[in-house]
Fold this sequence. Notes:
Layout: H1 3-15, H2 18-25, H3 29-43, E1 48-51, E2 54-57, H4 59-86, E3 92-97, H5 99-103, H6 105-116, E4 121-126, H7 129-135, E5 143-146, E6 156-163, E7 165-169, E8 180-181, H8 182-185, E9 190-193, H9 198-209, E10 218-220, H10 223-231, E11 236-239, H11 241-246, E12 252-258, E13 262-269, H12 277-290
Parallel strand pairs: 3-4, 3-5, 8-12, 9-10, 9-11
Antiparallel strand pairs: 1-2, 5-13, 6-13, 7-11, 7-12
Amino acid sequence: MNLKQLQCFRMIMLHKTVSKAAAVLNMSQPGVSTMIANLEHHLGFKLFERRSGRLHPTVEAKYFSEVSERLLNDLDLANQVAGQIRQGKFGSITVATLPGYGLTVLPMAIARMHRKHPDVTFDIQTRSSHMVRNLFPSRQFDIALVEPPVEPSGNTYHGLQLRCVCVVPIDHPLSEKSVLTVQDISGEKIVALFNAHTTSRQLASAFAVTGFDWSPIIQTQFFATNCELVEKGVGVSIVDPVTAQHFKTRNLTAIPFEPEIFHEVALLCPPKDKVSGLVSEFVQELLEVVLPFQS
């Protein structure tokens, strides 16, 4: 039993004559008759009886039609899904991300993708960079946004370097300055990330070089937490420009900071020969959102 035999059977059940079935299938009448004869031989029972020039399905044919129709409908659905996949209209993308970027650039990139492919589904998993670096080789994620160090290990790697800015309340005396320096904020209460973070290490070095003590009043895990604290008047903070942009409507202002402090991010995805066209397209959307923030 093969697909062509089932298609011939379906058309005869629908049109009741070999000639109409042959026309719909673009086959010869003898070809359709042969298909039905072979199917009957394989099944071991008659499917049609000829009366008054028309084919009448047997009781067995009616029972068999229910099963064969389900099979053909499943095949039609499979062909439809395959067409959607080819056109990038269907699929799913799993993304592992730093918490801050899950609040900022990812929603922006997903919104852009959704306008083009509204049926694509996303699974966004917020994880620490350490966890993502350990899990990414197992292909649990299609793409990942992590902080260095990163060992590409055959993956596609996009390194992004984002110059940080200083966020202060919009009514703060420092908000009038076009550039802020270590000296400007040395007398302020400073909110920073944990000591081991690359931005905190850069800031500690910058303060030491200029002769000021690096002594943040609060240390957190995320830039977004820092911005929330600055908004509530706790102090000032040096954060990545993506998070600063996200908080720009929250009574905060972002001001360039000198010396330059950089937040580095790596965008990881599998090798090009192991990634779907849909994922590749989303990577481009994500890069178009992030690159304007790059220094």
